[in-house]
Amino acid sequence: MFKSAESCDVIQIDLTRVRRLRALVDGDTVTALADIFRALGDPTRVRILDVLSHGELCVCDLAAVLSLSQSAVSHQLRLLRGLRLVRARRAGRMVFYALDDRHIVDLLRQGRRHVAEEPARAARRSLRSRSAR
After folding, report:
1. Could you report the per-residue pLDDT of 14-70, keeping only the tens digit for each?
2. Residues 112, 113, 116, 121: is their CA dihedral positive or negative?
3. CB neighbour class for 49 (10 Å; exposed up to 12, middle 13-18, buried from 19)
4. Number of H helices, E strands in the chain
5. Cβ-contact 36, 85 below 8 angstroms
6. H helices present in 40-95, as ranges
7. N or C: which end of the chain has fewer CB within 10 A?
8. Pairwise CA distance, residues 49 & 72, whole Å
9. Do the domain assignments include residue 120?
10. Residue 77 maps to which CATH number?
């Protein structure tokens, strides 16, 4: 029988550890987190969050920066507001949007760092494999 490299050859469960870790996985929290990552799975929404990480803007300015229609931007902002990633502030007839809190900026920054590290890691692996030859 063929064994996968991704699974154990022997089944031995540490019940104490399993019980403790199961308590960490709260269903509502996991669902909310998955919703945030799903929202971040759309390039337009990531671009909106990236632009807003530099400061508050109205829909008109956001649409101009992103070369999108105001309707398209408004649609994405509605979703982002529902997830509490952005907040709105009304000033007369204008509505300004900003990131909801500092955590969103940190999340974007860490994501950028992770993406930037991958090409560097690939280059190091390539150098190691060439030197091993």
Report:
1. 899 988 888 777 888 889 989 999 999 999 999 999 999 999 999 999 999 999 999
2. negative
3. buried
4. 6, 3
5. yes
6. 43-52, 59-66, 70-82
7. N
8. 14
9. no
10. 1.10.10.10
